[in-house]
Amino acid sequence: MTTMTPTPAPTDHDPRTRLVVLDMAGTTVADGGLVEQAFTRAAERLGVAPDLAYVRATMGESKISVFRALFGDEELARRANTEFELAYAELVDGGLVTALPGAAGAIAALRDQGRKVALTTGFSRTTQDAILDALGWREIADLTLCPADAGRGRPYPDLVLTALLRTGTDDVRQVAVAGDTSYDMLTGVRAGAAVVAGVLTGAHDRERLTGAGATHVLGSVAELPALLTAREEEV
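Structure for Haloacid dehalogenase domain protein hydrolase, as requested:
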């Protein structure tokens, strides 16, 4: 009888961060209350009362999921989502979208360090592209993803895992995720990212970020390149 010797699993692990997945609104892009303004406009057009408390609590989640939870009716949720996207596009066209200080420089620094960068959002592709165009950011990252590209939005891990697959990253432990909401943190944790960094430039505070699993909390995304470099030097 021949005994088969199992092939040992590889034990070597490259600790270097190869892929950085960044949120947009509140993390790299200044929100300035635009989500709440767009939601209020959409609610007015539908003749419903805007629940801004719920909108604030679910910042970072896929917008269609927010409307489904609010209205419990698929048709109304889709109508609300369409109106929201139209209202947000109006605000973008009005020149009200700006990059957060240091964001573009941070993205450039991350790529100069040899890392792939993916920009993700809870908005639709149409709205995401409008923001990228308004900022002149079409070529700033290696990849841009919205929920429709991945299957599900936050807090599911799909956006991060889709970025990993599309960039050819070998290991979830080579991924860093950064965002300003608890949903960003949950997405990173569920995807198995080694670094899940919360930033204090957006919707949620330090307590909510750490409560959702943040491994680090930064003042802004501008601090991320130095954090990743320092972390690798410690290994």
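The longest helix spans residues 74-93.
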